[in-house]
Design goal:
11 helices, binds magnesium ion
């Protein structure tokens, strides 16, 4: 029987919020305050379920198109203002920096494929203190169409001239964005999404957090490799 040739990965694309830094719940609280202030209060669980999609899509996803038209820009401005207040409380996940270094040691281009704001990404990079192994970054304003569209991951791959990549993320939106290219995704539960939710979205494997993935990194890469 002919065996399909499987090329090795040369690039890994990493989501940042909920994957490398423990920020998702601060984003939920920031959005919750923002929606309340524009007069369209939302339940936190609905906000959490939308975390990880681009801010340009989140208002419509959570509150509908009319709310987006009436309050979208105001809500986004307020979300940023509140998150700017909370950001100094945000911590990197344990061993997140070690995970980045371990990926680089395996010969991979390491790209932070964030859809966040430039100053939020800058803060995350300071927390991770791993610029020595980060080959490129993206941020939300780099593309017109945010996750779950695949544009951000395509751009991230292009920035390093990558040939074959896998994605590490925390949200169903990461999995869907990656699948549209298509790239396989390993998910972490550290963003607050259930394993069943992530697997149903198409994640190839799910680990607790950066430290758990680091402990099983070669297995995870192999799962992705055989999935492609
Ligand atoms: Mg995320």
């Amino acid at each position: 029987m002919e065996r399909m040739a499987t090329e090795d990965f040369d690039t890994v694309l990493l989501d940042v919020d909920g994957t490398l830094i423990d920020s998702n719940y601060w984003h939920v609280v920031s959005w919750q305050r923002a929606f309340t202030q524009v007069g369209a209060p939302q339940q936190d669980w609905r906000l959490h379920a939308a975390i990880g999609m681009g801010g340009d899509r989140l208002v419509t996803e959570v509150a509908g198109e009319d709310a987006e038209k009436a309050h979208g820009d105001a809500a986004r401005d307020l979300w940023k203002r509140y998150y700017d207040e909370y950001i100094t409380e945000v911590l990197p996940f344990p061993r997140a920096a070690d995970l980045l270094h371990a990926l680089k040691e395996r010969g991979l281009n390491v790209v932070l494929a964030s859809s966040g704001k430039p100053d939020h990404l800058e803060f995350a990079r300071k927390l991770l203190a791993s610029d020595d192994v980060i080959d490129a970054v993206t941020q939300g304003d780099d593309v017109d169409t945010s996750k779950p569209a695949g544009d951000l991951f395509s751009l991230a791959l292009d920035r390093v001239g990558g040939r074959k990549a896998f994605v590490i993320g925390d949200a169903p939106w990461d999995v869907k964005a990656a699948a549209s290219i298509p790239l396989p995704t390993v998910c972490l539960r550290s963003g607050g999404f259930a394993e069943e939710t992530l697997l149903a979205a198409g994640a190839k494997a799910v680990y607790d957090d950066a430290a758990d993935l680091l402990a099983h990194l070669d297995d995870a890469i192999e799962v992705c490799r055989t999935a492609t």
